[in-house]
Amino acid sequence: MASSEDILARLISFPTISKDSNAELIDYVRNYLSDYGIDSVLVSNDEKTKFNLYAVIGPDKPGGVLLSGHTDVVPVEGQDWTVDPFCVSRQGDRIYGRGTTDMKGFVACVLAMVPHAAASNLAEPVHLVFSYDEEIGCVGIRGMLDVLEGDHARPRFCIVGEPTSMKIGIAHKGKVGMTCRCYGVSAHSALTTEGLNAIYLACDMIAEIRNLHDELSSGVLHEGFGVPHSTLHVGTIQAGTALNIIPNYCEFKFEIRNLVSDNTELLLKRLQNSADTIANQYRNEFEASDIRIEVFNQYPALHTEQDAQVIDFVSDLLGHNEVTGIDFGTEAGMISSRLSMPAV
User: Any idea which residues carry the catalytic annotation?
Assistant: First the structure.
C-alpha cells in the first residue's frame, strides 16, 4: 500500500503546469483507483487534452462528503529553484517540489486513504473530484459541475484542500477578469490635435478603476482577510506601434476581487458608465471614440455560515474550530454556488 509521500512523489513527477496537459496524471489516478475496484468518470476540455476526474467510494445514495482538489500547478520558469521542481526532495520535515502544497499534497493524502475507504462498509459515500486549470481562473471545474448538477447522489458538503495552514477557510473572495478596449483615432505625432490617443483614454479609465478601489478600501472592512475589502487591479497593458504615431487602440486587463457583500454586477455597471462618460467627451470630434469592457473569466465568492455542518465535521477532524477567510479564490465558491452545497 503506497504512502501519501510515495503518491505525492508520483504526482509531482507529472509537470502539470496549467498550459500543458494533465492526461498522464489523470491516467495514473484512474488506474490507481481501478486497482481498488473504483470506477471513475472523466470530463475533458474540447481538445481532449485536459481532464477532470470524478469517482465515488461507497454506497450509491445522496450524502457523504466531496473531496475536491486541482491537478494543475503554476509555472516554474524564471524562478531560482535549487532542486528539480518536478522531483520530490525531502529536507528535514519539509518536502519540496512544485505543487507539494498547492495542491498535490492534498490529492496524495486523499488517494492514500482510498484502500481503507474501499475496504470499509461506508454508511455514506466519499466523492472525489480532481480538476484541471484551477490556477488560471477555476476553468476546468465548470464542466465537472455540469455533470454533478445532474447526479442524484449529491454530497452533503465539500472540502477543498487548498493551503490554509490547517485553519478552516469559510470565505474567500470572488473574481471578475476583464479586458478593457479603448478606441481612438490614429495620426502623426506631430499633429496631435488630429488624433485621439487611445492610451490617454486608457489612462483616464484606469484612474476611474483606482478611484473605485480607493472607495472600497475606505468602506466597511471585513475581519478574517489579509486585505479586508474588495480590490481592483490592472495587470497588463498593450498599445502603440511607433513613437511618432498616435495609437488608435489600447487594451488592458484588470480584475475585481470581491467580497460576497459587494455586488460585482453593480461594480461592473458603474465602471461601464465611467467608460461611456470618458468616451463621450470626444465623440463630437472623433466618432470612433469608445471604451468597451469585456468579462473573460468570473467565479463567485465563498461564504459558508459558521453553523454549517461541514464546519463541525472538519473541526472534529482537526481538533479545533479556528476559521479564516482567504484572499485568493478557489473552486469552493463555484461548488457551493452551483450545487447549493456548503463548502470549506
Answer: 72, 134
